């Protein structure tokens, strides 16, 4: 395509771009080389408006676009997307969203102008999970320091498996995992650990390590000729325990669910009964997964008592503190996880209470070397033993991924930015907000707590609209109340004013679960949530 | 701490920041509210120099820092980090790196100035995997469009499991996975699929789906009472097949490794022998994992023939095209994967040949619904069935993760930017470079090919230093040659001039494997690699 006008200038600029290192090499040695190799083609070809296909950043071609994109992101996603004056989302039904956004990909190349429009639409129609009024999940917030570190990770595009490819991140993981183990209470921070893509996978690693320790032959021989392995977790535990037990060939039936008390905590006497039952059945109990911070209620299983049981029956104690682990950095609240230092393994996701960007999940182990023992296959092409540096820093063979993102940087950088004291203040403020919100609704007509005294920062409650108040004894009360939360949720989604989730559990009608992690929220926000739910449900 | 001078102004600014929505609500209804709830504390507290602990971006506090950070990243990582004039890495031994960088985290909060210094050090001492001379792994490049999309993903911080939380990314995944299936050749693009954190996990999903289809009871009951499951893959296949088979309770011994021919392709007659052997043993063969683009040699297993065998024995055919899948977008090169449309499942990582940022991996299935059937647990708190929208868009129960990054955006955005034609040009250029490089070394003294005619863009070769030339028949030739690649690798790492890996395989002494994905490379770069290796090894 012939270049014209402005394009021609750009082409000229590109052609005149200073010689690269390879150019220099080429000219110094050119004649000799051309005796042996075909002549190289010119480096640059004319650039027309649509973007080039080449995967190498070029300042002249890309800097303006990159900066304009950052402008869009800072303005629309980071600042306006977290501004209380703006909506959390612009709800669109799938069909409508398909009309508003051209999702098709098999077209011609785009121009930078078109791409900026595309980018704006992606931001516009995405839910602003960093918005103060997004209290829908066990994650929220767009932490500015976490964000910078994510952006750095992307710009460096590393994979953490060998020291030669990821020197900084290998050492950084070592430090952060050790510090986290020390906070858990493992002696001297010793043990093992891994950053992995989400708490579910972390729980899966725990099952795998427990199983390996129980019977190392499993790694080679598999489960088919073994006794039936059984593990125990509470009925309120995260679904990943079942899911990963199934994935790992143990089967969901062999996850024995232990009853919880009215506040959602594992009933230890039932645990003992179920262990005894499994033994009577001739099965092989090998692991208990306690939960520190359940998904819905935010309950903490009694770890000390469970640890005693595990000790007696020689079972691996895993603590799924994906959600609750954040409380460990607070002197005031870490008592919730009392006994966690007795665990064999702990899942702790800094992307939940500590608001590191998605995903930042860890499995921490009290035992050294178990990850590698359970998972290594010694791939010769990646983990060569004749390297010139100490290959103990090639950590990649201990995980089940091959390439692995450097999820450590975001958390390390946030920690560096705020200090341990800052993380502690963050956690304490989130607890204060949750306490304040609880106090608000406890004394307010139309609100009713599901758990009178929440242990954590999930608050479960019903909003009882005026038409249902004082009618608890009527036969259809529960059915009617069951429909309230979904209707209010629909309204808040369609207005985009806030996002909070609901669910039924244990025979209860649907109730709201509001969850706090964002320390940028304040007491006025708590009041806002109360009033917004009242406003949305006023006519129900 | 009392605020002074500039800080005082900032505090004043913050206090005067326009009232938020919650302020507005508060003032309109204030009196009524305070009858029922405690009085909220003031929103802002004085800001001293060290950063605030709060997880909410604030334009006044953070914009300058965010923009300065982007400046560092664009300058040092994106542009200078990929400039041929600069080094690929600054090698430091672990101990030295620990001295140069303060990895410690348990200190006080930092200032923005300190954090910028920290950020610069992270960039400085990280390997520049986007540098044209980083040809060490099956990934490289920092694609500018992929990068923008990653930055957008981070700014939005989504998790792809429900339509309510990730409307844009749910629909985007649907489109991209369908298009990828169509390119694979699945009829009408129909089937199932998932973006997952790396090709190893994708291969793990394939094993899980194959196993579930073989015997759906496994999901609930596990493997303990079943016949011994056996799967087959070549001895050159990626180690993740063994690793995930072990993780999933099948055991590494039950991955039967099939011989490869001299060019690294699965020997189909040996496959048949091994299937027959497993049947004689009373085991239960259920799956073959063929490889399209092996890790070291870049070989393509003969999929058509393997598909015939799978059809005969009723085995699930998986094709691990994590690395080779990129060739499918090229009319010229897709013949390498002939027959892939007969696969039951395909792993294809756009983060490899197509240079999407890490991680962007997919599992594509010819069968609809199998992922959910194999993995769903119907968690009631997340996948409520009484939502106001069509819950078929809540895709999260089909994967084993709970939270899941929106890895689709980067690839979708690159595809949108370059068009399918751009992706094709990218692939064709990478092949051309590989071909050119091969031609260079074939005719050059001191270089010897491991595989005379490479099928793909991994080129395996020895550099034979002058002292060893013409001495092939001597007894210690192989031992001496074995030490050459590690020594040259050490030198290039210490100089930071390039990065290419080496390994021994099949009794061969260590050989180099150079891998191309970055279409920003040109023929002059190919010449540079040849000459750089000669320079580094000239005195050996």
UniProtKB/TrEMBL annotation, chains A, B:
SUPFAM superfamilies: PLP-dependent transferases. InterPro entries: PyrdxlP-dep_de-COase (IPR002129), PyrdxlP-dep_Trfase (IPR015424), PyrdxlP-dep_Trfase_major (IPR015421). Its cofactor is pyridoxal 5'-phosphate. The modification N6-(pyridoxal phosphate)lysine is found at residue 352. One of its GO terms (molecular function) is aspartate 1-decarboxylase activity. Keywords: Decarboxylase, Lyase, Pyridoxal phosphate. Its EC number is 4.1.1.11. GO terms for biological process: carboxylic acid metabolic process. PANTHER family: BLACK, ISOFORM A, GLUTAMATE DECARBOXYLASE-RELATED. Homodimer. Belongs to the group II decarboxylase family. This is Aspartate 1-decarboxylase. It comes from Tribolium castaneum (Red flour beetle). The lineage of its organism: Eukaryota, Metazoa, Ecdysozoa, Arthropoda, Hexapoda.
């Amino acid at each position: 395509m012939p270049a014209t006008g402005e394009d021609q200038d750009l082409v000229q600029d590109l052609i005149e771009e200073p010689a690269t290192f390879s150019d220099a090499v080429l000219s110094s040695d050119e004649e000799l080389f051309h005796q042996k190799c075909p002549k190289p083609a010119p480096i640059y070809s004319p650039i027309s408006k649509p973007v080039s296909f080449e995967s190498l950043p070029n300042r002249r071609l890309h800097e303006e676009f990159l900066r304009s994109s950052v402008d869009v992101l800072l303005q629309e996603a980071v600042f306006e997307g977290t501004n209380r004056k703006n909506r959390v989302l612009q709800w669109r039904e799938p069909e409508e969203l398909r009309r508003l956004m051209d999702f098709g990909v098999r077209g011609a190349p785009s121009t930078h102008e078109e791409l900026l429009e595309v980018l704006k639409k992606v931001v516009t129609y995405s839910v602003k999970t960093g918005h103060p009024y997004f209290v829908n999940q066990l994650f929220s917030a767009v932490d500015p320091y976490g964000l910078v570190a994510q952006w750095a990770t992307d710009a460096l595009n590393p994979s953490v498996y060998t020291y030669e490819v990821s020197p900084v991140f290998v050492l950084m993981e070592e430090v952060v995992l050790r510090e986290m183990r020390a906070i858990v209470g493992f002696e001297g921070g010793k043990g093992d650990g891994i950053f992995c893509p989400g708490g579910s996978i972390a729980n899966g690693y725990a099952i795998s390590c427990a199983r390996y320790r129980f019977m190392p032959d499993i790694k080679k021989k598999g489960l088919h000729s073994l006794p039936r392995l059984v593990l125990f977790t509470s009925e309120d535990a995260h679904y990943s325990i079942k899911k990963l037990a199934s994935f790992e060939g143990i089967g969901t039936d062999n996850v024995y669910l232990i009853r919880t008390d009215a506040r959602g905590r594992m009933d230890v006497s039932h645990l003992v009964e179920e262990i005894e039952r499994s033994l009577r059945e001739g099965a092989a109990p090998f692991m208990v997964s306690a939960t520190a911070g359940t998904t819905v209620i935010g309950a903490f299983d009694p770890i000390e008592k469970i640890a005693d049981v595990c000790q007696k029956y020689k079972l691996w104690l895993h603590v799924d503190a994906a959600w609750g682990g954040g409380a460990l950095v607070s002197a005031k609240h870490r008592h919730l996880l009392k006994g966690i230092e007795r665990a064999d393994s702990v899942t702790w996701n800094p992307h939940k209470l500590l608001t590191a960007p998605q995903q930042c999940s860890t499995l921490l182990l009290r035992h050294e070397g178990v990850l590698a023992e359970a998972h290594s296959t010694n791939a010769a092409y990646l983990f060569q033993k004749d390297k010139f540096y100490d290959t103990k820093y090639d950590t990649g063979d201990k995980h089940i991924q091959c390439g692995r993102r450097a999820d450590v940087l975001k958390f390390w950088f946030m920690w560096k930015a705020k200090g341990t004291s800052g993380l502690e203040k963050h956690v304490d403020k989130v607890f204060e907000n949750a306490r304040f919100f609880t106090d608000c609704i406890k004394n307010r007509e139309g609100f009713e707590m599901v758990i009178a005294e929440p242990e954590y920062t999930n608050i479960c409650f019903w909003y009882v609209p005026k038409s249902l108040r004082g009618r608890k004894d009527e036969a259809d009360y529960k059915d009617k109340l069951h429909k309230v939360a979904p209707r209010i949720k629909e309204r808040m989604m369609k207005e985009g004013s806030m996002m909070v989730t609901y669910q039924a559990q244990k025979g209860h009608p649907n109730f709201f679960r509001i969850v706090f992690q964002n320390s940028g929220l304040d007491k006025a926000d708590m009041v806002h949530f109360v009033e917004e739910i009242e406003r949305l449900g006023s006519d129900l």
